[in-house]
Amino acid sequence: xxxxxxxxxxxxxxxxxxxxxxxxxxxxxxxxxxxxxxxxxxxxxxxxxxxxxxxxxxxxxxxxxxxxxxxxxxxxxxxxxxxxxxxxxxxxxxxxxxxxxxxxxxxxxxxxxxxxxxxxxxxxxxxxxxxxxxxxxxxxxxxxxxxxxxxxxxxxxxxxxxxxxxxxxxxxxxxxxxxxxxxxxxxxxxxxxxxxxxxxxxxxxxxxxxxxxxxxxxxxxxxxxxxxxxxxxxxxxxxxxxxxxxxxxxxxxxxxxxxxxxxxxxxxxxxxxxxxxxxxxxxxxxxxxxxxxxxxxxxxxx
Length: 302
Ligand code: NAD
Hints:
By secondary structure, the protein is of the alpha/beta class. It has two domains: 160 residues, NAD(P)-binding Rossmann-like Domain (Rossmann fold); 135 residues, N-(1-d-carboxylethyl)-l-norvaline Dehydrogenase, domain 2, CATH 1.10.1040. The chain has a six-stranded parallel beta sheet with strand order 3-2-1-4-5-6, sandwiched between helices. The protein has a three-stranded mixed beta sheet with strand order 7-8-9. A two-stranded antiparallel sheet has the order 10-11. Helix 7 links the parallel strand 8 and strand 9. The longest helix has 29 residues. Bound molecules: nicotinamide-adenine-dinucleotide. Nicotinamide-adenine-dinucleotide binds next to helix 4, strand 7 and helix 6.
């Protein structure tokens, strides 16, 4: 099918590439020309703006880094909302349910369906087409795009209520973010007491403490201290803040989410929004006076 794709970053590029490889006709747009050039080289057509794309195709997908970017691309001046042909806007970004509902309400005035479709599974999942894809929106529009979304991962229909795909994604990412910092604290505790962190991770992965943090993130990016997992701390903190806001907007006060949220605020303050989120361990190491992993193994910090 003809698909517009806006936002060709760490996630958007491999998702768009897979859609091209599956035979879909893509028109792409990104504010960075180099990002567009890479897809044009693979057979995509370059669009001049979100509106330009929405003039040409019925289905527009977006994978954008902030709530404001999704709002602008969908409903701003020169946005999808001004397109002549567009029927549905599929947001693959994590924006939270309140922003999804806001975009839904604005697009509804122009009879454009908004489809939440946040994804989980990281850059590796986007490359392999193994993402968890959490869709909410009108059933008929979901049916029209289900096969295309199946190219990027396993598709789950969460419901018709606008924003419910986002609520699902925030529940997932709250768990992912919490497992990450909890695993950092557990391993730092072990290293402080003299344990080998590589052995610790092997034991955790054979035991009941296993999570994606111990299974994937520690072996690949923390123990070798490459800190190159491909998800920015700024994006992780965006998701944690959205999860805490979502809980509060439902009248809930949740102890673990509040504590994890405070720790992630320390991490973004000390490491910066552009750092890789696996650098979450650094402020915890600093406080404990130890370094985990690396070529020399673990040691007390100087
Ligand atoms: P990214 O920063 O790598 O990519 C975003 C792209 O959007 C960039 O190429 C940027 O130039 C482009 N862009 C920004 N503003 C734009 C605009 N107004 N118009 C057109 N293009 C614009 O971000 P990412 O890591 O690919 O994440 C994208 C979304 O996917 C985020 O919502 C993130 O939370 C979510 N997500 C990321 C991961 C991950 O592992 N990186 C995993 C799951 C979900």
